[in-house]
Amino acid sequence: MLKRRLIPKLLIKNLKNKKSLVFFTSENFKKFKIVGDPVSQAKIYQSQRADELIIFFCDKQTNIKNTENIELIKKFSKEIFMPLTIGGGVKKISDFEFLLETGADKVSVNSIIFERPKIINEAAKKYGSQCVVVSIDFIQEKKKIFIYDSKKKSFISIDLLSYIKKLVDLGAGELVLTDINRDGKNTGLNIEVAKFVSENLKIPVIISGGCGVAQDFINCFKQTEVQGISAGNFFSFKDQNPFQTRSQISNAGINIRI
Predict the structure, then answer these.
(1) Would 256 be classed as within a structural domain?
(2) Over the stretch 163-202, which tens digit does the pLDDT of each residue have?
(3) How far, in Å, CA of 224 to CA of 170, rounded?
(4) Is residue 140 packed enough to be buried (19+ CB in 10 Å), middle (13-18) or exposed (0-12)?
(5) Domain of 196?
C-alpha cells in the first residue's frame, strides 16, 4: 500500500459582517467555530508537514467563481505548495476546468452527484480520474447508512458500497467519507464503515469525522485500508499538529511519510 496520508480540512465560509472568507470548523455540521484566516492556517499546516489539504467552500448557494473565491483560490495556489483538493458549489464541467486551472490538483463533488452523476464520467474523461474526488457525508444508525444531500437537506437510505461502486464505475478516482454524527465530537473515527468500504474499493478512501486523539488515527490505519485521514477540529483546537501526529503514527509501525 502507498504511504498513508494526513490531510487537514479547511471549511471556508463568508463572514458577512466583515465581508471576508474565513476558516471554520463544525460539530455535526451544525455548530460552527471561526478559526481564522484560511491561507495563514494552510501555511501553518504546510510547515507542519501535512500531506495535502482539503478545502471546501460551504456557503449556501456557493458560486465557486465569485470574485472572493477566485482571489482566495489564487492565493492558495501562489502561497501553498502541497496538493489541494477543492470543492463546494461544483455544478458543471467548466467548474472543474476553472478550479484545475486556478490551482486545484483535485476537484471534489458532493451534492451535484445526486442530480447529475454523469458529471463524474464527463470530468474523468476530460481531466482523468485522478482529479475527480467524490465526497459523501453520512450517518449510521445501527446497521443502516444514510447519505446526506446538502442541497435538499435530506437523508437517503442506501446500500453505501453499491452506490459508491457505481460512482467509481463512472470514473471517481478518490473518495472522502465524513461521518456527520462524529463530526467535531472527538469520539473516534467510524472504523466499521471505513474498514468495510476501504477493503472493497480499489480507489483511495479518505475518512473524516471524530478524531480526538492521535490514537484514533493509529487505530483506523491499523484496522482499515483507508489511504488517508482528514481532520478539521483536531488540528485546530487540540494540542497536536500534523508533525506530532505523524511521529506517533510512524512510531506505531504504520507506513507514513516522515
Answers:
(1) no
(2) 999 999 999 999 999 999 999 999 999 999 999 999 999 9
(3) 25
(4) middle
(5) 5-251
C-alpha cell at 245: 501526529
- Gap between the terminal Cα atoms of the chain: 16
Q: The CATH number of the domain where 82 resides is what?
A: 3.20.20.70
User: What phi and psi, each to the nearest 5 degrees, are found at residue 244?
Assistant: -65, -45
Residue 258 counted as domain residue: no
The CA–CA distances, whole Å, from 211 to 6, 71, 114, 234, 237 equal: 12, 31, 28, 6, 11
User: In the chain, how many domains are there?
Assistant: 1
DSSP E strand stretches across 16-123: 20-27, 31-36, 53-57, 84-87, 106-109
Q: How far is CA 8 from CA 19, 55, 89, 99, in A?
A: 25, 9, 20, 19
The pTM for the full model equals 0.95
Selection from 101, 201, 180, 256 nearest residue 86 by Cα: 101
